[in-house]
Amino acid sequence: xxxxxxxxxxxxxxxxxxxxxxxxxxxxxxxxxxxxxxxxxxxxxxxxxxxxxxxxxxxxxxxxxxxxxxxxxxxxxxxxxxxxxxxxxxxxxxxxxxxxxxxxxxxxxxxxxxxxxxxxxxxxxxxxxxxxxxxxxxxxxxxxxxxxxxxxxxxxxxxxxxxxxxxxxxxxxxxxxxxxxxxxxxxxxxxxxxxxxxxxxxxxxxxxxxxxxxxxxxxxxxxxxxxxxxxxxxxxxxxxxxxxxxxxxxxxxxxxxxxxxxxxxxxxxxxxxxxxxxxxxxxxxxxxxxxxxxxxxxxxxxxxxxxxxxxxxxxxxxxxxxxxxxxxxxxxxxxxxxxxxxxxxxxxxxxxxxxxxxxxxxxxxxxxxxxxxxxxxxxxxxxxxxxxxxxxx
Length: 393
Ligand SMILES: Cc1ncc(COP(=O)(O)O)c(C=O)c1O
What we know:
Elements: H1 14-26, H2 33-46, E1 50-54, H3 57-66, E2 75-79, H4 84-93, E3 96-100, H5 111-115, E4 122-125, H6 137-144, E5 150-154, E6 162-163, E7 166-167, E8 174-178, E9 191-195, H7 198-207, H8 214-220, H9 241-273, E10 278-279, E11 293-297, H10 302-311, H11 337-345, E12 346-349, H12 357-372
Helix pairs in contact: 1-9, 2-9, 3-4, 10-12
């Protein structure tokens, strides 16, 4: 069965096409004026001093943790219920991930649980603003105050979400965004690191461009334009003009995207609250730009629901398989009962800008039809553990 209503879908218009064509016509596709314009626009929007555009959210996280100059004994506390990139970035930067619980009420980091995992080696905490809902930052500020523990926000889901009068991503020492194809806005692929700290920003700026110190390079352009200095290790992570051009156009659509996706999330919330067998993840949608719509399916019927929807051309997915169960991260294995219970119940339903009211009603109707059907009766098998390990390990 062909999927007619996917779980996620990016939206583009003629403006993006024109912007891409203009970059192609300029013959300057790599990092350049448009990248700089995109970075400036992000700074302006978020009210931050520095934004460094990179080619993925994963690269943003790698650069942000790396800017803290971590060593292999250093620990970074991260929720297990996140996309694998959060964890891989910590490892790539050379630190050790320590997994923590999330709260059932919003799938965000559980500050009380984090408190119990802090050790003298804790260098940073990485709150993930799940689905665009901002974590309990006040709780994290209280926990980290005066202890030299940095906050690196994984705001991959939360570009355009706010916390009081500030924006997600601008709440920690460093904030990281993803502009991959399904995020709140997209560059086709891309991300950004933002910070108010001049030193951290400089480290990210140099390392994201293979260690080239562009400032000294530009100082020397008059005499020896070909000369450059490499004083640091670095990566080829910069965002080129082509992708930045898409991002600049998408930023103009941000508010439209937010309003439409909020309306759909609200409709789902009403429907889920009135449907037996589902549990609302009580969204306070105040200030939220909803990236996805996750609900809990009770009574071991989650997998059955996903199969039912698929047969009817409706996409759904699971965000995410807890990382503490993954064989690659066995060195950080621990027991996280709330996360494991959530993993058996959560499902992501379709949510995207172009979804019509009819599409939304169709999803709601099919979810209810499944839960009322006889096929909804059986218990699903235990959520599959990643290869090489059982969920109980
Ligand atoms: C929570 C989270 N962090 C990081 C990333 C990585 O972003 P990217 O796909 O742009 O590398 C994602 C992407 O899905 C994500 O969901």
